Amino acid sequence: MRLRDVIRTKRSWLVLLGVLSALALVLVGKWLNEVRPATKRGGQQPAEPFRIAGNLYYVGANDVTSFLLTGP
What we know:
Blueprint: H1 3-41, E1 50-53, E2 56-59, E3 66-69
């Protein structure tokens, strides 16, 4: 194999690697744009308390389950 062919082969692999890297960065960027709003919505947002049955109530946040049991 001639030196020119080796250089072309290496250059082709480097170009392919660069294109794949750029594609990976674009995909990660798109994924982060979808994930970021979800993290802003989640995480200890207040939830309206409600009565489940009798003296058992749901209280707490939207992503944490908390129950309140009342007595006399």
